[in-house]
Amino acid sequence: MKSWIDRRAVIFYVFAVVSFALTPLAPTEYSYVGWILGIAYVVLGSMSWLDRVAFWRSNPTRRKRG
């Protein structure tokens, strides 16, 4: 069964949510770290998802692989 999203992307998005959720608990002078990590994880998740989309579009014979 073909999944429309890569499992790595899901993990990166979960890490991003955790980073954003923990940002208010950080000391004020270090709150930027949570934002930077969250944004980085969103970028990594998006790149992972785009890699999966490009793979499925460029290899039509391998689409049956799950």
Q: What's the gyration radius in Å? A: 16 Å
The portion of residues assigned to helices is 55-70%
Distance between the termini: 5 Å
Element-by-element helix/strand order: HH
How does the helix and strand content classify structurally?
A: mainly alpha
C-alpha geometry: elongated
Give the uncertain stretches in residue-range form: none
Average pLDDT score: 86
Number of helices: 2
Q: How many strands, what sense, and barrel or not for the largest sheet?
A: none
According to DSSP, the number of beta strands is: 0
Strand content: under 5%
Task: Quickly count the domains.
Answer: 1
What would you say this structure looks like, in words?
- The termini are close together.
- Helix 1 (7-22) packs antiparallel against helix 2 (31-58).
- The protein is an all-alpha fold and 66 residues long.
- It has helices at 7-22, 31-58.
- It is elongated.
- The chain has one domain (7-60).
Write out key terms for the chains shown.
single chain; 66 residues; mainly alpha
Summarize the structure.
The protein has helices spanning 7-22, 31-58. The protein has 66 residues and is mainly α.
Task: Set down the secondary structure blueprint.
Elements: H1 7-22, H2 31-58
Helix pairs in contact: 1-2
